[in-house]
Design a protein that fits this description.
With 419 residues, the chain is an alpha/beta fold. It has 3 domains: 3-48, Transferase, Pyrimidine Nucleoside Phosphorylase, Chain A, domain 3 (Up-down Bundle), CATH 1.20.970; 79-153 and 189-323, 3-Layer(aba) Sandwich (Pyrimidine Nucleoside Phosphorylase, Chain A, domain 2); 330-418, Pyrimidine nucleoside phosphorylase-like, C-terminal domain (Aldehyde Oxidoreductase, domain 3, Alpha-Beta Complex), CATH 3.90.1170. The chain has 16 helices and 12 strands. It has helices at 3-11, 18-30, 35-48, 52-63, 92-99, 120-124, 136-146, 159-169, 177-191, 211-227, 249-260, 266-282, 289-299, 304-315, 351-363, 402-415; strands spanning 79-83, 106-110, 148-152, 195-202, 231-238, 246-247, 334-339, 344-349, 377-380, 387-388, 393-399, 416-418. A 4-stranded antiparallel beta sheet has the order 6-9-11-7, with helices on both faces. α5 (92-99) crosses α12 (266-282), α5 packs across α14 and α12 (266-282) packs across α13 (289-299). The longest helix has 17 residues, at 211-227. The structure holds uracil.
Length: 419
């Protein structure tokens, strides 16, 4: 078999066989197929797509590139959630302490920033010392001690996804239903949880631009999970406007802590709670979401969520003082106040362009090798619907480098409308 022929077939809209997909994935992971050929393949998939059966084969080939866990001997049900990616989406961070204050296990493996979206791992690494790279033994030991892990893929979990994910990020091949499905499901199935909740985002700041595409992605994800013998549920959530008020790694950790303290912004808090409720229902701890939600609400005042967060940070080597003292995470040197050019009401805050603005401050990567600047990002003082007067601050830009500020300002100008 020749790599060229497989790329050619997909480029011309053909349906790939299991053998062809296995051949590409195996060759890429082993290093015999170079990045440039896989980039061409990814672009061909982006334009020609894959049907559900091909997507399933791709997912299986990616699972088969590494090891898979099974947690038959755990004393509590295992559950995980995965978001398809958005702007300001820090939900995993408050979600894990909330959910694991109940009797469940969350073996969560997350990713880094992808395209214009942020990544949970980059956010967690804003906490001084916080460690996300664990091997298999470390992963299992976190689960045993703490009933959760908030880590990156261990080198042996779906290594094909790890390589492809980084390549897709820099080749404009992220927003493809089969590629997203195979990426998410390969690591989720290999990671071993028996229950999944997917947060499928649609809108300008999501990889799926329309609700219909979001629905299709949700159905690919849940069908793949079910074929693998797992329970799955999903939420379709609007990503036309950034989630919450903070975008950028350190800033999103601050917002996550505020959610756990009961002071989070309404949109982010509600979505976190909804996903948590679905996870607990899937695990059989509650009959319905409403009873799960009322218990979740009750627990804020007990301090349990913050205790869980502290345990997670401590066990993963981070500095737990961050929960109370945000200055432990080094802030950006400068803050620029982006002001309203006219009086009116914010009518549009385009999540994609605002995501690019956050990326431009240094919060994300342009190339695979880039390091993120944890301190940079955006603070949204106003959201759509809010009234503003000319000259009033709308967004605070946290930045370290002047040229980055200029480029962030350009994206904000494009992404913000006042009427
Ligand atoms: N999250 C993932 O893990 N993979 C994708 O492709 C998109 C979002």
């Amino acid at each position: 078999m020749r790599v060229y022929d497989v790329i050619y077939k997909k480029r011309n809209g053909g349906t790939l066989s299991k053998e062809e997909i296995d051949f590409l994935i195996k060759g890429y992971v082993e290093g015999s197929i170079p990045d440039y050929q896989i980039s061409a393949f990814l672009m061909a998939v982006f334009f020609r797509s894959m049907d559900f059966d091909e997507t399933l084969e791709l997912t299986n080939a990616m699972i088969g590139s590494g090891v898979s866990y099974q947690f038959d001997d755990m004393e509590f049900p295992t559950v995980d959630k995965h978001s398809t990616g958005g702007v300001g989406d820090k939900i995993s961070i408050p979600l894990v302490p909330i959910v694991t204050s109940f009797d469940v296990i969350v073996p969560m493996m997350s990713g880094r920033g992808l395209g214009h979206t942020g990544g949970t791992l980059d956010k967690l690494e804003s906490i001084p010392g916080f460690r996300v790279d664990y091997d298999d033994a470390g992963f299992l030991s976190l689960l045993k001690i703490n009933r959760c892990a908030m880590i990156g893929q261990t080198g042996r979990i779906a290594p094909a996804d790890k390589k492809l994910y980084a390549l897709r990020d820099v080749t404009a091949t992220v927003d493809s239903i089969p590629l997203i499905t195979a990426s998410i499901m390969s690591k989720k199935i290999a990671e071993g949880a028996m229950n999944f909740v997917f947060d499928v985002k649609y809108g300008s700041g999501a990889f799926m631009k329309s609700r219909e595409e979001g629905e299709k992605l949700a159905s690919y994800l849940t069908q793949t999970a079910k074929i693998a013998g797992r329970n799955a549920d999903h939420v379709l959530s609007d990503m036309n406007v950034p989630l919450g008020r903070f975008i950028g790694n350190r800033l999103e950790i601050i917002e996550s802590m505020e959610i756990l303290k009961g002071n989070g912004p309404e949109d982010t808090t509600q979505l976190t709670e909804k996903l948590a409720a679905k996870m607990l229902v899937l695990c059989g701890l509650f009959h319905d979401e409403d009873s799960a939600l009322s218990k979740i609400h009750e627990k804020y005042s007990t301090g349990e969520y913050l205790d869980r967060m502290k345990e997670i940070i401590q066990l993963q080597n981070g500095d737990p003082r961050v929960i109370e003292d945000y200055s432990i995470m080094k802030p950006a040197k400068n803050i620029f106040e982006y002001k309203a050019a006219e009086t009116g009401r914010i009518s549009r805050m385009d999540a994609y362009l605002i995501g690019l603005a956050a990326l431009a401050t240094g919060a994300g990567r342009e190339k695979k090798e880039d390091k993120v600047d944890h301190s940079c990002g955006l603070e949204l003082l106003k959201k759509p619907g809010d009234p503003v007067t000319k000259g009033e601050s709308v967004i605070l830009i946290h930045y370290n480098k002047k040229d980055r500020l200029e480029s962030a300002k350009k994206y904000i100008k494009e992404g913000l409308s006042i009427e």
